[in-house]
DNA sequence: GAATATGGTCAACCAGGTTGTCTACTAGGA
DNA sequence: TCCTAGTAGACAACCTGGTTGACCATATTC
């Protein structure tokens, strides 16, 4: 059997491709994965561009480019930080939240189909296993998301 | 809990980072993941540059660049195809096979540590689950490896 | 034998990162 | 209170690793 990282990479690619296809089918603008991860992150907590960079696992400059795009396209906006005059909070617009909502439905679909194919208990074990491993390796602080290639 | 692809991406990144660190510790030349995947592929079957591109999920031109690098560094060599005068088989040199051997030991270590952290049965379920899913989605032909970002 | 498809190479280009630098601001001591 | 070290964000230059497109030589199909 293939070693774990190969399986992870292939599955990631396979699911991502399916997701992307369906986005297009619906006619939803197919943003890149990184954009989606930003939405998901912002839905959970207030964050600056630097926070986003750390979450994605890229430099703050790269994160700034992504944020600038999302801003331009109307998915996020930047508002002044209440106490720190240097900083800005990046927040989702309604358009951004809507996009995330649709994306979540799609992901749930894909996950359900995965459950049909390999068993719901297996999917649950996979998710719990990976989560536990990440917890074990990284403790509190979340690891980067960007795959190294 | 995070959706599946996020977990996949984070775990992939986390394992990859650890692997890379250890490669450096041993003093083994830290090639990129793509190179390792090429070794692994060539160890299983005879392949041309086009085959490699398909396996990685990149164009043949991109694959050609990688093969050229590996050739230059002494990990692979290109030999004429027995029947097709256009084609060349890319094959591992001893150096390439040795590298793969060391890498496999490292991966096994990481997998064992994962098993200690989350349970051997869980790791087995994860591997079987992902393998089954890939089989379900792609059937016979293997999916691309390169993560879309 | 002609038309079409495929492996490999070359060249131009591009996307999406990185490093380095700068300014404005913050925070933590002497 | 002032001085110093650190941080958020922006700008510019650059680099890596991919893509597209064109081409030749050879294979394959009819």
Written description of the protein model:
- The structure is a homodimer of 149-residue chains.
- Chain A is mainly α.
- Chain A contains 6 helices and 2 strands, in the order ααααββαα.
- In chain A, a hairpin with a 7-residue loop joins strand 1 and strand 2.
- In chain A, helix 2 packs across helix 5.
- The radius of gyration of chain A is 17 Å and the shape is globular.
- The interface between A and B is large, with 57 and 57 residues.
- The structure holds a DNA duplex (30 and 30 nucleotides).
Short note summarizing the structure:
The structure is a homodimer of 149-residue chains. With 149 residues, chain A is mainly α.
Q: Point out poorly predicted stretches of chain A.
A: none
Proportion of residues in helical segments of chain A:
55-70%
Number of strands of chain A: 2
User: Biggest interface between protein chains, with counts per chain?
Assistant: A-B, 57 and 57 residues
Shape of chain A: globular
Q: Sketch the topology of chain A as an H/E string, one letter per element.
A: HHHHEEHH
Mean pLDDT of chain A: 94
Spatial sequence of strands, sheet with the most strands of chain A:
1-2
Radius of gyration of chain A: 17 Å
User: What gap, in angstroms, lies between the N and C termini of chain A?
Assistant: 21 Å
Strand proportion of chain A, as a percent range, falls in 5-15%
Oligomer: homodimer
Structural class of chain A: mainly alpha
Number of helices of chain A: 6
State the major sheet of chain A: 2 strands, antiparallel
């Amino acid at each position: 059997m293939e070693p774990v990282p190969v399986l992870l990479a292939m599955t990631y690619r396979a699911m991502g491709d399916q997701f992307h296809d369906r986005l297009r089918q619906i006619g939803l603008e197919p943003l890149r994965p990184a954009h989606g991860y930003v939405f998901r992150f912002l839905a959970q907590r207030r964050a600056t561009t630097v926070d986003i960079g750390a979450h994605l696992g890229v430099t703050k400059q790269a994160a700034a480019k992504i944020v600038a795009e999302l801003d331009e396209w109307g998915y996020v906006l930047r508002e002044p930080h209440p106490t720190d005059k240097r900083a800005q909070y990046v927040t989702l617009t309604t358009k951004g939240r809507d996009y995330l909502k649709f994306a979540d439905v799609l992901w749930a679909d894909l996950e359900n189909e995965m459950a049909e194919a390999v068993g719901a208990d297996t999917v649950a074990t996979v998710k719990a296993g990976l989560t536990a491993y990440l917890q074990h390796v990284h403790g509190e602080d979340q690891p980067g998301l960007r795959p190294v290639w």
